Amino acid sequence: MLDLISNKTHDETRQGESFAPFGLDPNDYKKKFYIESYGCQMNFADSEVVASILNKEGFGATRNVEEADLIFINTCSIREKAEQTVRKRLTEFKKLKAQNPSTLVGVLGCMAERLKAKFLEEEKLVDIVVGPDAYRSLPGLVEEAESGQKSVNVLLSREETYADISPVRLNTNGVTAFVSIMRGCNNMCSFCVVPFTRGRERSRDAESIINECKDLFDKGYREVTLLGQNVDSYYYNSESDGSGNAVTFAQLLERVAQISPLLRVRFSTSHPKDITSDVLHTMAAYENICKCIHLPVQSGSTRVLQLMNRTYTREWYMAKVDEIRAIIPDCAITSDMITGFCTETEEEHRETLSIMDYTRYDFSYMFFYSERPGTLAQRRYKDDIPLDVKKRRLQEVIEKQNELSLTSYRKDLGKVFKVLIDGDSKRSADDWVGRTSQNKVVIFPKSQHGEKKGDYVSVKINDCTQATLFGAMV
Ligand code: SAH
Ligand code: SF4
Ligand code: F3S
Questions:
Q1: Atom of ligand 3 nearest to the CA of 229
Q2: Are residues 128 and 250 in the same domain?
Q3: Count of domains observed in the chain
Q4: Which pLDDT tens digit goes with each residue over 60-115?
Q5: Is 88 helix (H, G, I), strand (E, B) or coil?
Q6: Segment 349-367 mean pLDDT
Q7: What is the pLDDT at residue 242?
Q8: Is residue 197 part of a domain?
Q9: Of the residues 13, 79, 197, 201, which should be mutated to test ligand 3's pocket, given the most ligand atoms within 8 Å of the CB?
Q10: How confident is the model at residue 182 (pLDDT cuts 50, 70, 90)?
């Protein structure tokens, strides 16, 4: 999903970041926990919910795994490689546990859900296994584990949205934040494990989302990204609160945008079949709704798309792109692609390359197909494309995207963009790093005018690579 840093294939979207919430002294708490997250932004957002639940029970976060009483790893199952990364990390935790046997190790997230109690057999060092819908039970499970029992809760729920829990912002820059608006997925893309690890789709109470965004804005945040596996099917029927009004994604987007013109709004991910004209018109109507749509195509071949159960055709997708271009001319479009799906021919692979040319993606995440146990594709189709062919096709897709990205970034030379300052550039404390509405990273020198993190500034672009714009404030 939205992690527009460079055009690389990345299996684990962001690896091994650990967190400690701002302003909390871990020594104020009776126990310290360490949490490391893998996978998509929803997993990172979930870790912030977990931190909140644990904080309330008197646990404080630490960035230092060696001083932790509890080590959590929030896991991803999307591709085999993502699971291998987690297993490797677990062997490192094993060494820590050998030094300090009272340390408890908990596996959270999608891999916990997929493997359930099997995890405890396979990985003897694991004490706690908790699925994505069971985080409220964590304090109880920790207690159980402390008494020497292994503890597991992988129940999926049809209702849980953690709507009432204020996430503890971890590793935050104080400017941008993720807000979960729904959980689970009802689509059955045949390659995908998410419906099995995250359960049925459910939308979070609209008021709780708006309140969370308002609260973030009041605390100085200037950008929220609304998260869901399929945000366009967001639908909250507030009958239970007596108002009887249903809220669609377009309406939710509008209400969040109305909090303040100074609050940028992004969202991810849009399934091409579900994004509506209403959403596009809402985006066009509000300057602060960022002009960037992550619209994963997966494949450019109608036959492969059918096998993938994506429910759109090549032509239908292209028409959607046309509609976006017509309604929001300056909109960036980004994508996910899978190469070497079951039975994909060379010609079908070239259709992926040509739909990339058609759409002119600004950025993409690209993967070769990795068969996942229990998915429709695993049960129905043979994973028959040899690994070297999958990888060669992936390489071609990457090269195509590199060209497209460079073209897209070069087009910005000489133009002036409104940039939200995220903070100091990693390369130099004399430079700022920020992003345009299209989510392109911009690096530019600090000035004497006292601009600061969280400010909007105008930047004229004078240089670029395929992943970064460089400029100067005007
Ligand atoms: N909900 C989002 C995607 C979530 S997973 C959507 O519908 O687009 C993120 C990306 O991982 C997918 O878009 C897909 O490109 C990739 N992916 C999912 N399962 C995969 C698999 N089995 N092998 C390779 N890539 C996969
Ligand atoms: Fe997976 Fe498809 Fe759902 Fe995305 S929409 S999470 S790819 S099943
Ligand atoms: Fe991975 Fe689960 Fe997200 S499988 S991509 S962490 S929903």
A1: 7
A2: no
A3: 4
A4: 999 999 999 999 999 999 999 999 999 999 999 999 999 999 999 999 999 999 99
A5: helix
A6: 98
A7: 60
A8: yes
A9: 197
A10: very high
Number of the ligand 3 atom closest to the C-alpha atom of 74: 6
- Which residue from 229, 271, 298, 376 has its CB within 8 A of the most atoms of ligand 2, so it is best to mutate? 229
- Could you give the CA distance from residue 54 to residue 34 in angstroms, rounded to a whole number? 11
Does residue 3 have a pLDDT over 90?
no
The residue contributing the CA closest to ligand 2 atom 4 is 229
Residue 210 has pLDDT above 70, yes or no: yes
User: CATH number, domain at 116?
Assistant: 3.40.50.12160
CATH number reported for the structural domain that contains residue 214 in this entry = 3.30.750.210
Q: Rounded to the nearest whole angstrom, what is the distance from the C-alpha of residue 107 to the centroid of ligand 1?
A: 22
Nearest ligand to the C-alpha atom of residue 10? 1
Q: Is residue 421 part of a domain?
A: yes
Specify whether 43 is located in the same domain as 83. yes
Respond yes or no on whether the N-terminal peptide bond of residue 62 is cis (omega within 30° of 0). no
List, as one string, the DSSP characters of 206-257. Answer: HHHHHHHHHHHHHTT--EEEEE-TTGGG-EEEGGGGT---EEEHHHHHHHHH
Q: With contact defined as beta carbons under 8 Å apart, do 227 and 42 qualify?
A: yes
The rounded Å distance from CA 79 to ligand 3 centre is 9
CA-nearest residue for atom 1, ligand 2, is: 192
| pLDDT single digits (tens) 128-137 | 999 999 999 9
Atom 7 of ligand 3, nearest CA residue: 194
pLDDT attached to residue 238: 76
With a CB cutoff of 8 Å and minimum separation 6, the contacts of 269 are 1, 228, 229, 230, 231, 294, 296
Residue 52 sits in which domain range?
A: 17-153
Q: What DSSP string runs through 139-207?
A: HHHHHHHHTT--EEE----SS---TT--PPPBS--SSEEEEE-EE------TT--HHHHH-S-EEPPHH
Q: How far is the CA of 324 from the centre of ligand 1 (A)?
A: 22
Over its C-alpha atoms, the chain yields an Rg (Å, rounded) of 22
Task: Say if residue 44's pLDDT is above 70.
Answer: yes
Question: Is residue 243's pLDDT more than 90?
Answer: no
Confidence band of 299 (pLDDT split at 50, 70, 90): very high
